[in-house]
User: Fold these one by one.
Assistant:
Number 1:
Amino acid sequence: MGRWEPNTRERLARAALELFGERGYEQTTVAEIARRAGLTERTYFRHYADKREVLFGGAEALREAFTRAVAEAPASAAPIDVMAAGLVAIAAVFPERGTARQRHSVVGSHPELLERELIKRATLAAAVTEALRARGVPDHAAALAAEAGMAVFKVGYERWIAPAEQRELPDLLRESLSELKAVTAGG
Amino acid sequence: MGRWEPNTRERLARAALELFGERGYEQTTVAEIARRAGLTERTYFRHYADKREVLFGGAEALREAFTRAVAEAPASAAPIDVMAAGLVAIAAVFPERGTARQRHSVVGSHPELLERELIKRATLAAAVTEALRARGVPDHAAALAAEAGMAVFKVGYERWIAPAEQRELPDLLRESLSELKAVTAGG
DNA sequence: AGCACTGATGTCAGGGACTGTCATCGCGTA
DNA sequence: TACGCGATGACAGTCCCTGACATCAGTGCT
C-alpha cells in the first residue's frame, strides 16, 4: 500500500475544520474541502457519509470509553455512581482544551452541525442505557440515569470550554453531578 | 384574502405526513408533497424552511405552554416541582394518542427526522432554562433541571405511545419524574 | 516476466434539495 | 380605472449526494 498520500480521512477532517473556520460552514463546499486535501469530491463521500460527518469522527472512541467504564464498574455501585465513572473515563479521550474550543465554536455556528452533535449524544445515551441494563439496572432507571448523565456531561463540558475556566474536565463533571443531585433532591 | 385555497400550511403538513407514511421519507420528494397539496415546490419552501420542518409545526405551541406554566408556578415551588408543572402543562397541547403514534413512527424511521426532533427538544430545554432563571434559579441549576425535565418527558412520552399502554400522559410523566428522583438519590 | 486480482481513487452523468429572480393574478383602495 | 400588495407560479442555477464505469499501483500466482 502507499500509492497515494496516507491518512486520507485525517487530511479531509483537518481541511474541513480549517475551511469551516475560515469562511464558515455554508460558504464552504465539499469540493473545496476535497481539493484542499488533494482529493476529489467523490472521494470525500467515500470516507464520510455527508458534509457534516467529517467533524464527528471521534464519536466512536467516546462511546467505547464510556460503555467500557460502565461495564467495568464494581457490581455494588449505584447507577448514578456508575455514570460518574463513565463521565470521568470520557474525559480521558478528549482533545486538549484549545482544540475542543475551536471545534465547539464551529459546531455552534450552524444549526445543521448542532443537530448532528445532538444525535451523536443521543446515540451515546442509548449505548450507555444498554450498558446499564447489561448490569441489571431496570429499563426506565437505566434510561433516566443515562439521560441525566448526558445532562451532567453537557453542563460540565460547556463549563470546561468557557473562556475564563481553569479547572480540569473531571473536576467540573463531578461538580455538575453533585449539582444535579442537589436539584433533583429539591422536591 | 382568499384568492387561493385556505390553510396552505396545514394542507402541506397533512400531505407530507400521508406521503411519508405511504412511501417513506426518502422516497418522497418535496415536489410530490406540494402537488398533493395543490401547490408547487417553490411555494412549499415559502412555508417551510426545508423538507423536514413540515413535521414540526407544533413546537412553538409546546414551548409557549411549557414556559408559561413555569413562569406561573408559585414562587415557593422548588425547581424540580416547577418542572413537573411544566410537564403536565405540555400534556394538554398534545394531539390524541393515535396521531402521536403515527407521527412518532415517521420521525423514528429516518435519522434526519430524529435530528430535527432532538434540536427541537434542545431548543425547548433552552427556553425552559431561561424561564427558570427568570424565576431566580441559579444558572447551572436551571440548566440541569431543564435537561432532567427533558429526560423525564422523553421517557414518559415514549411510555405513553407504547403499544399496550393505557394510562394517560400526565400520570406517566409524574411517574417518570419520581423514578428520576429515585435514581439520582441512589448515590 | 507475465498475468489476473484487489482496492483506492478519478471521471462522468444525474436526481433532488434549496434559492434568487421575475412574472402573474386576484383583491383592496385611492 | 389605476395602482399597489401579497401569495403564488415559472425558471434557472448551485450544491449535496449517488451510481456506474475507468484507471492504476501494488500483490500474489504461474
Note: Chain B touches chain A through 35 residues (CB under 8 Å).
Number 2:
Amino acid sequence: MLTQRPKGTNDLLPGQTEKWRYIENTIRQVCSEYGYQEIRTPIFEHTELFQRGVGETTDIVEKEMYTFLDKGYRSVTLRPEGTASVCRAYVENKLYAGPQPVKLYYVGPMFRYERPQAGRFRQFNQFGIEVFGSTNPAVDAEVITLAMDFYERLGLKNLEVHLNSVGCRRCRPVHKAKLQEFLRPNLDKFCPNCQGRFERNPLRMLDCKNPGCRELSAGAPTTTQCLCEECAEHFEQVKGYLEKVGVRYRVDERLVRGLDYYTKTAFEIMVEEIGAQSAICGGGRYDGLIEEIGGPATPGIGFALGMERIFSALAVQGIEIPLETKADVYLAALGEPAVQEAFKLQAQLRKLHLKVEMDYLARGLKAQLKAADRLKAKYAVILGEDELARGAATVRRMDSGDQQEVKLIDLIDFLAVNK
RNA sequence: GUGGAUGUGGCGAAGUGGUUAACGCACCGGAUUGUGGUUCCGGCAUUCGGGGGUUCGAAACCCCUCAUCCACCCCA
C-alpha cells in the first residue's frame, strides 16, 4: 500500500513526461493561433458548483464525484470536468464586462470516482476550450475545427465527428413530450435503467446501448425533427460552416451528451480501435449554463478532450512523438584531478546552453563511454591523466569514432563551433 | 456498483505437489592493465502479491484478502 499509487492514478515517468510536454506544446500552439487564452482554475470547488453546473441527474454528480468535507465542514469536490469551473470564473471575475467573445482554454487533471479500465482513470487530464458571449454558429464550427486541427497536427487519422443538435429551452419540452408519447406504450419492455430515465430525461433513452432498448426506440422522434426554427437554422449553419472548411462530420441523431447543460450543438469525436472508450473528445453549446449558476444570460460553447486517450490513439496508430536529444557532450574523466577539471568544463559548456553530462559514479572509461552512447551524445570528451598532463583532452565523435586531441584552452570554442 | 481474467527477479515469461525456481531482455562486472553501440564469459528471486489452511513436502491444491487489467453502466 505504502508504495502503491491509488487506484486509477498514474505516475508519469521521465520519457513519458517529455511526450506530455510535446502534446501540451501543441495545445498551446494551436490555441494561440486560434486566439484562445489560457485560464487556470482551482482543482477543487464548492460541491454545489458541480451539482448545479453539471446537473443533478448526471452520472458524474450521482456517483462519480470525489467529494469531502474540509476542516471548516465545507463540502468541496475535486473537479470532475472543466466547464463548470471556467463558467464560475467567468462570472466571478466579471469577464462578461470585458470585450466579447471570451475565448479560453485549460489543461489539467480531472477526477472521477469510477472503476478504471482501458482509457478511463480516476485522475485523468483534459484539454478543453470554452467560448462565451456569442451565439454565432460559426463559433460552433470553429470549436470543432480547432479540435480536429489539433488532432491532425499530432498525426492522428480515422477520426469521426459525430454531430447533433439537442435543441433549446423552447424545443426541448416539445421533443420530450413527443418522445414520451412514443415510448410510453412499450415502457415496460425497456431496461430498468431506461425506465428510470423516462420521466427525468427520456432523451438519454435514445442513447442506451442495450440492443433491446435500441430496437424499441427505433423510429422515435429525434431532437432534430423537433427543433424550433431558430435551432434548426443554427444547426444548418453549423453544418454549412464545417463544410466550408472541409471538416467531415456525421449527423448522429442519437447523440445525447451525458451532461445536462447542453443546448443546440452537441458533438463527439470518436476513434474506433482504442477499445471501449472510443470518444476522445466531447462538447457542445450550453447557452443556459452561465445563467444557471447565477451569472448574466450568456451563451457558451466548448469541448473537453482526454489526453490519456490521445496517447492510446497515437499508440494504436503507431505514431511516435519526436524525442529530444539527451546530451550533446559527455565528459569522461579518469582520476580525481581530471574530474575536477571536467566539472569546471561542464559548467562552462552549460553556460553556452550545451547539454552536458559527466560521470558521478567514478566508473571506468568503458562504462563512461557506454553512458555517452546511451545518452546519444554527439561527443565524448576524454580527460585522463595523460591528456591532463598535456593540457588537452581527447574529443571523440560518437557516431564515427573519430577522435582528436584538443587543447583545453581551445575546447570550449571547439565544442561550441562543432555542436 | 456488477461481471470476467490475471498476479513468479526491473520487464517479459516457463514451471501446476518432491532435493539447487528454466529462459529471454534490461542492468552490473570481466575478456592482459584508458575507449561505446557486435560477440563471448560471469553476476543478478533463501523465493513465487499478502495471510491462513491441507500435506511428510506446495510457487503449484483449498479459503480469505489485496492489487492490476478488461468489460458493463457512463463517459475524456
Note: Chain A has 15 helices and 16 strands.
Number 3:
Amino acid sequence: MANLHPHNHDHCIRTAIQRAQTVCEQQGVRLTPVRRRVLELVWQNHKPTGAYELLPQLAADGFNSAPPTVYRALDFLLEIGLIHRISSLNAFIGCDHPGGQHPTGFFICTDCGNAAELPAARLQAFSAELEQVMGVQVASSSYELTGLCGVCRLKP
Amino acid sequence: MANLHPHNHDHCIRTAIQRAQTVCEQQGVRLTPVRRRVLELVWQNHKPTGAYELLPQLAADGFNSAPPTVYRALDFLLEIGLIHRISSLNAFIGCDHPGGQHPTGFFICTDCGNAAELPAARLQAFSAELEQVMGVQVASSSYELTGLCGVCRLKP
DNA sequence: GAGAATTAGGTTATAATGTTGCAATTCTAC
DNA sequence: GTAGAATTGCAACATTATAACCTAATTCTC
C-alpha cells in the first residue's frame, strides 16, 4: 500500500530507474534514452498514465513524440516487466517489484486515482486455484479492482 | 466451463433472452428491439465480440447501425448485468448468470478464443480477502486470465 | 386523454487510443 | 570496419469510443 500514502517521490523514481538498469543488464537489453525517459515519466506521474499523456511530456524534453515512439517504449517496458498495463483505464504504471514475470493486479482508488499493486503471492495462489478448478493452463492474468483506498474511505 | 465445450447454441441464446426479459421486468427497464437484438448477437457470436463487429450484423437486420446505437445498447446491458466487458480485448460477452451484480472474471483461451466466466463465489471471496489485507473498500472488480482451455491444451 | 416529463434512438462529427510500413540511423559482434 | 540486428523517425491509417444536438416514443400526472 506504500504508494497510496505520501512518500518521497524522487526516491521512488531514482530507485525505479536503478532497478531498471539492473534488469536490463541482466537480460542483455538496452535501456535507451527514450525508454528510460518514458519509464521516468510513468513513475513521475505516479498514477496510471495514458500513452498520449506522455507525448507532450516527451516533446518537452526534446524527444521525438509520435505515438509509435511512446508505444514502442511502453511495449519494451511491459515486455521486461518494468511497467504494467491497466487495461480498464488504457493506462500504464510502474511495477513495484520488477525482476521476474508475475501476474498483474491493481487496486485503483476512484477518489484519488492512485493505484496500488496487489500482492503477487496471493494472485499467484488464486490463479493456481482457478487452473485447478477449471482445468485450464494460465499464461497471463490481470486483476483490476476499483473502490476507495484506505485514506479516501476515511475522508468526509 | 460449459461454454468451452460444444453445446446447443440456440438454446443458449433463447434462455439468455428469456432471462433478460425477466431481469428487465424485475428492474422496471425496457428491453427494446435494438437492445434485445444486440444481446442476441453477443450470445450468437458466443465469443468476446467487439462493438464494431456488431454494427454490420445490426445493419443486416435493418436496424440503425451507427456506433452510438451499439454503445448505448451495450451500456444498457452492462448496467443491468446482462453482459460483461472484457477490457483487455475491448470486447463484450454475455453473462452466464445474470440477476445480481457480481464481479467480472473470465478465462480466455488464446487458441480457440472462447471465454469462460470464472466462478463468482471464488472471485467474491478473493476480493474480500484483498479488502481485508489492503484495508480498502472494493466497488468493482474484473479478473482476466489468458491461456489454454481444457480442450485446446490437449490438442497436438 | 392532454400535456409535461422522461427515456430512447437517429445523425453527424470528432475524440481517444493504438498500429502498419518503410526508410534512416545506431549499435553490436565479429 | 563491415554485415547484420536493433532501434528510431516519420507519415499515414485503423480501431474504439464519445459529444452534441435533435426527434420520436413512452410513461406519468392530473
Note: The radius of gyration of chain A is 16 Å.
Number 4:
Amino acid sequence: MPRYNPAEIEPRWQSFWEQNKTFAAPSLPSGDKLYVLDMFPYPSGDGLHVGHPEGYTATDIVCRFARMRGRDVLHPMGFDAFGLPAEEHAIKTGEHPRVQTEKNIATFTRQLKMLGFSYDWDRSLATTDVEYVRWTQWIFLVLYDTWFDPESQRGRAIAELPIPESVAAQGENAVEAYRDAHRLAYEDDALVNWCPALGTVLANEEVVDGRSERGNHPVQRLPLRQWMLRITAYAERLLEGLDDLDWPAGIKKLQQDWIGRSSGAEVDFYIGPPAEFEDWKARRSDTGFASAAPEDALRVYTTRPDTLFGATYMVIAPEHPLVERLTTPEQSAAVTRYREAASFKSDRERTEGDRTKTGVFTGSHATNPVNGQPVPVWIADYVLASYGTGAIMAVPAHDIRDHEFAVQFGLPIVRVVEPPADAEDREAVAEGRVCFAGHGTAIASGPYDGLPTEQVKQQITDRLTEEGLGRHAINYKLRDWLFSRQRFWGEPFPVLHEVDAEGNRTGRKRTVPAETLPVDLPHLDDFKPHGRPEPPLEKASDEWLFVELDGRRYKRETNTMPQWAGSCWYFLRYIDPKNTEQFVSPELERAWMPVDLYVGGAEHAVLHLLYSRFWHKVLYDRGHVSVPEPFQRLVNQGMILGELEYTAYQSDGDEFISSAEVRENEEGKAVGPAGNVLRTVKLEESQVEKAGDHFVLSGEPAIRVDARSFKMSKSRGNVVNPDAIVRDYGADSLRLYEMFMGPLEATKPWNMSGVGGVRNFLDRVWRMIVDARAEEVTLAAEVVDAEPDEDSLRMLHRTIRSVTEDTEAMSFNTAIARMMEFVNYFTRQEQRPRAAMEAFVLLLSPYAPHLAEELWKTLGHDQTLAYQPWPTWDEAALVESTLELPVQINGKMRAKITVPADLDQAGVTEAVMANDRVQAALEGKKLVKTVVVPGRMVSLVVK
RNA sequence: GCCGAAGUGGCGGAAUUGGCAGACGCGCUGGAUUCAAAAUCCAGUUCUCGCAAGAGAGUGUGGGUUCGAGUCCCACCUUCGGUACCA
C-alpha cells in the first residue's frame, strides 16, 4: 500500500483518537484556556451539508493549532434538536419525533466524526435530552422569578420588587398580579396564525402571503394567550454590551438597528373642548407631565419635537384605545369598517404591495400644545400600535410618510424647517412637492425661528417639560419576545394554572418546584392536530394535564417553548455536561467563560445572538454566570454556493434570446422582449466564451449567457454531499478544499476540480515523504538525516513563519498556498532533511490531521502529534545575502538591480546609476529626484 | 427606498496595508514517460503587437492626491446579501 489512501488512513486515526480520548478537554483548565464554539446544527433528515464543515474545519484548525501551542482547549459539539420538521414527520407517520430526531443525530454524528474534527465528544448534548430540558426549564424559572429594576438597570429577584402601598392594600391577589406584570416572563394575548383547514396553529415561516405553505389554505390571525419574555427591558444593556465585543462591525450594526434606539419627546395634545385649552394648559404646569397619558390628552412620540409647529394633523393606530372616544357619530361607520379591514390584515399585508396610504378621519380634533391650533385626528394603519405611544403628530412638510398621506387626503402642509443652503431639491421643497426630512433652520416656529434643528429640539423639549406638556423620551424598535409555540416538539413550560372544581382556571398560577424538574412531554397516541386553536398538548391525558400540589388543583401549561430556547445557553452546559445538581458549576463556568471564538452563519446575526445575550445577562444579573457577554469574538463563515452555471434562454422556436433582453415576470419566470415565457438551457463551459465583461454563446457574440452560481438547493439539484466527497477524495481533501476556496467570511462557489487539486497536493505530500514504490509504508530514499542547506533552511523557516501567522489570522487559504510552495520546492530536491519534513508535517496537521498523523508515525514517532510543540522559526534563517531591487523611472518599472542586502542608500544609488538600462533612460535627461525605499525598490524622476 | 459586503486573467483567489499586480490552485497548451492510456514529471499560460529582444495597455467607470495607487480621497455603475411605513 504505497499510495496515499485516505479511505484506509482516516477511519484508523479517527478510532485512535476516539479510543485514546485524544481531544478530551480537562474539566478545569490548568493554564491558558481557549473556548472555541461552533454554532450547533439542527440535525435535519438531509444529513450534513458542505456548508457545515466550512466553519467546523476552521474552528478545528484553530483548536488543533492552539493545543500544539500549549493552550487548554474546550471544543464541543451538540445538536439543536427541537424543531418543526421532526414534528411534521411525526404527524405524518405517528412515530414519536424523538425517534426521527435521534436517527438524524446519529447520522450527523457519524458524518462529523468522519471529517476528523477534534471535538470532545463526551460533552456532546442535544437540546432534546431530558436532562438538558430540565435545565432549560430551570432557566425559565429564573426568568419568571426576575423583574428588571430600571433604577439599577439590572434584573433582580421578584421578592425584591417594591409593592406600592395602594396595591398592597388590595390584598394578596392584587400583589400577585402586580408581580406578574413585572416578571421577565409574563403572559399576554398575541396574534397567532390559525389555519382552520389544517386545524393547527402555524409558525410564521409556515405562512406565505397569508396562506399556509402546505396546502395553500387561508390563515387567520387570532389573539391567543402567549408567554412573552421582556427582552425590551434589556434593550439598553444589549446595545451597550456590543461595544466591547470583537464582532464584525456589520453584525453589530444589524443588532443595533434591530434594537433600534431612538430619542425624542413624548407630547400630550389636548382632546377636550378647544375653549378649555388654556385652562388645561394652565393646570398642566401645576400637575406636571403624568407617567401615563390622562383621559383628556392624546400622547404622541416624536423624534422631531422641533417640528411641532408644522404638525397639521394626527394619526392614531387602528388598535389605539382612544379610537372609540375620538370617533364622532358621523364617522363611526367608516371608522369601524376601516378598523375591521385592518384587523384582518396580517403584518405582512399591511406592509406589502404598493403601500398606498389609507386612513379615515375620526371626526375629532386635538389642540396643538405649542400654538393652540386645532388639528384633525385620523386613523391609519401606517401608524403601528406597538411602537411609541401608537399615535403620532404628522408633519407632512418634514416626514416622507406624513407627506404621502397629506397629499393623498389633501391635508395642509406647513413648512417649519428651512433646508441648509447646499441641500438638493431646495426648489421642490419650497414648493411643497417634496418633503425635507433633514436638519436645517427653524421657520414659522414662533420664538424658535432662525435656530438650528438640534437647538430647537432641545429648547422645545425643555419648554414642554417645564409646562408639563411633554418630556424627553427614548424608544426602541425591539419588541418583547413571543416565547410560546402551539407545538408538541418543544420544552414544556414548568408552569401550573390553578383550576377550580369544574376545571376552569382561577387566574392564579405557580411554577413547578425546581427539584421536580424536568416536566416531560406527555405521551400522545398520535400527533395529529386536534382542530382547535390551542396547543397540541391539550390532547394529553388528564393524568399529565392535572396536578395536585399543596392541596390545590392545577392544570399544566400546554404551550411549549420555541426552538430558540435550547440554543440560548448550550455553550454553558458543554462546560459541565453531566452535572445533576446545577446547570453548570460556577467554578467551571468562571474558568471557561466567555467563549473566545464563536463561528457560524450570518443568518443567526440577530435573533439567536440577541436572545442568548439576553438570557446570559439575566443569568449574570442573578449571579449564575460570571461574565456579562457570552461570546467574545464572533466570525461568520460565508455561504458556499453551487458550481458556476452557464444559462442560455430559448424561445419556443428554439431561438436563442440574449440574456440582456430577458426579464423576470411576476411569477419569477424568465420572459423575452415580447413577453413570452422562455426556456432555460444549461450550457457546458465549452459552449460559451468571454466577450468583454460577460459571457456569450460560442461563435454568437450577440447572444449573452448568464454565468453565475446559485445557493445549493434540492430543487436546483446542485447540492454537494460531503459523504460522496469523503468517499472519492478523503476527509482531509474536503477539509483542505473548503479552507483553500477563499477567505472564510466570503461567499464562494463550489468547484469539484478544485477538490481534485487539493487531493493532488496531498498526494504530493505523501510522495515527498513516503516511498511510493515500496510494498510497505516506508520513508522515501530522499528523506535523509542531513543538515539542510541555506536555501532549504530559508524555505523551511519562511513556511513556518507564514503558516503560523496566517493560521493565527485565520487566513487559511494563504497558509495552504504556502504549504504548497514548500512541497513544490522539496519534491524537486534530491535531499529532503528529516527535520524539515517533520516540521512540515506538524504545520500541516491542523489542516489535514489524518495524513499528518500517518506521516508522523512513518517518520518514526509512536505518539500522536496532537500535542507536539508547534514549530518555531528563526529570523536569521530568513535573511538573504543579496536582493533584487526594481528600479522605476517616472513611475514605470524599467530595470532590476542585484545588490548585497546590507548595502547602504548611497551604495544602492550608485548601483542604480551604473545600470545600462538606467543610463539609457537618463540619456539627455535631467535627474530630478531619487527615492530609495530600503529593501523594496528605487524610484527615479527625470525630465 | 434604506443598510451592509464585494467588483483583480477562462475560473477560485494572492498581494508586509502606498512599493515588481496576478502568489497558490483549477482549467488550458506543449513536451517527457508509455505499445497506448491513466497517473506522474517538466515547461508555458493577463491582453494586444512582435520570430525574438522588447514595446504598449491593464485591478468595475470617471476624476483626484503621490516619485509611485488594486490599496488613499471624490463622484458614479454593477452584483450579491439583509431589511421594510418604528414617527
Note: Chain A has a mean pLDDT of 90.
